[in-house]
């Protein structure tokens, strides 16, 4: 990891983080490829490799020996082939992503989602996300990780979570059919439920919402002559490629009525998915043009920004490339998965002494065929 | 390079997201256009009534006078745009460079828009059938000649429009809204922001209140959808899919393909050479891009000779630089569009009884590094049932269809403009009664010759105002 312009303090932190990552990568590969602990999928796949992961992977950089992870491997069953031998008797969840057309991608989960969100909880300022406050989860649930994860976040902070469901698969179908009036009606249906919860005396102070739903919620509250702040919300976390600097600026300046000190509302962007967990953001400020830079929850997951032509080649800092993800948990091992997103490679800093990614948006190679902004 | 902000009720808004408007041949950026999201528009629409209130500060007569001034400024002045300004020549050059339309056609469209602004008094007199505009402004009033109360209610304080990038002439359709004291909410086309911005600029320079206007460049699926769902009266320009999507929605007036036609009736068809130039112009004007261009010529006989003769006139047309006054063809600037159109045409040509009369004049699809062209096409269809008989494309393309006169009205389908060349009164009467014909020309009138003193593509007065009952009686008020 290049660090030629970093301060000595950050450089030392970067080196320590890299050492931790190397040790973690070694441990995770040992776990997933050992007969006593590994899952059927990887033990079977091992036979195809021209190297032995148990002896030849000593650190993170050795993960390049694996072929790129193909998302097709996640489509279809049996899903139990992903369960590590050591966890066969644990209660297993399955989380899905995609699935508007064809078979969705599935991953098994046991406690990873709780760990991700417990860790994320540590990054939230108590001033705006008060311990013990109740939460509103305004986003997709069903077979997705998000509902359980946000609920856990609320619980780990001593609160209770109210949930509004939204089915993104139905939303995508409406968009593809051009039934925008139905889309509006469905969105309004979700917002009506959210407003009901917020105005029912449940002492909800924190919430998760997708950008479009936060926007609609604010507009819906305005219609009723009130605001998100008056409804009691002080802390919001949100996420996704729709979370752009321009949207953040509009949201903070116009929907909230100013930054946290002025409006009383603090919003933090995140970038997460079923495979990675949750990447946190460097604080977003008007002074920096609302730039959003994400840092993966290393060493449990690593994001790299790689060349469009060669996924093993990092682009320079500040340059554009495709986001490549590696997940390294005992529940799930994903080496070198090319995300459907692109962005710019960001330098490490003291809070997150590993590299990040900014300007995340749909990979331009997919842009014409991907329906984005579904919720 | 120009930096063009969004306009929110007259105030510039410089977005953090910008899209380059590029030259269609060189790829060189001409301007950076701010992109805003639908949420901003929706929120701004809560202040829509202020736009109408600002215009109601002026009498209709004052607004008409200012619009005439705006028309002159639009045509002749150096007007501000974004962080710079534009002379008329620079405007024409920029518009041509981003849309692919030859410069002389841009100039012609400019004349069209200016004419409408400068003659709005007569146009509204025609569209309202002589109604005193003060009745629309006040909402009610007595008809001067008779002692009858009239009342009209504006159905929205603003007119919205999701604008296209292909033909700068369509802007004439929304211009009357300002004179009717309705604010304007526009989503400019990504490749043709020039006309709406210049008209806005001209109107403000002429003294109309800036707070009556909003321009929101951005993605159609987001800001366009937001506009159509949050404004009570709006126009949208698009393809057949767009038309189908909004058909039956009383809040939206969709404008798409015109499927305009020329019918040569049995009483005149033997004299078809007399009308050859009219047919050629109707197909060929404005590079065939407009919905008022003829895409079908129907006759019961001589159709092969007609197709042959039109093909001889327009088939050999060559591609020329857009600055050339002789340039007659516009480029397809959206990647992949021209090859996709060509694939559809090839599929239609595979049908028996369908003949391409422009085939001898060389390849029709010309692909260049950053843009493509389709050269003019004249296709003959032996019967109206052939697929090609109901097609329209954004270049000079016409199908000459053989069809007995007594089946024409039934089989021709929807026509925005129908020019029926006939002296047969019975046939003319049947055409008058045909509900799938919008603008009807009886006699040798080119389809693209538009009389602005006639309603066009739906009367905008009927779209924006509702006629209603209004009664009043004196009330005795207690003395204070």
Automatic annotation (TrEMBL), chain A:
From the Swiss-Prot or TrEMBL record, give the protein name. Long-chain fatty acid--CoA ligase
Q: Which organism is it from?
A: Bremerella cremea
TrEMBL record, chain B:
InterPro entries, from UniProt? Answer: Ald_DH/histidinol_DH, Ald_DH_C, Ald_DH_N, Aldehyde_DH_dom
A Pfam family of the record is Aldedh
Q: Start and end of every Aldehyde dehydrogenase domain?
A: 18-451
Q: Which UniProt keywords apply?
A: NAD, Oxidoreductase
Q: Which Gene3D superfamilies match?
A: Aldehyde Dehydrogenase, Chain A, domain 1, Aldehyde Dehydrogenase, Chain A, domain 2
Spell out the family assignment given in the record's similarity comment: Belongs to the aldehyde dehydrogenase family.
Protein name, entry field:
Aldehyde dehydrogenase family protein
Natural source organism: Bremerella cremea
Taxonomy, top ranks, is:
Bacteria, Pseudomonadati, Planctomycetota, Planctomycetia, Pirellulales
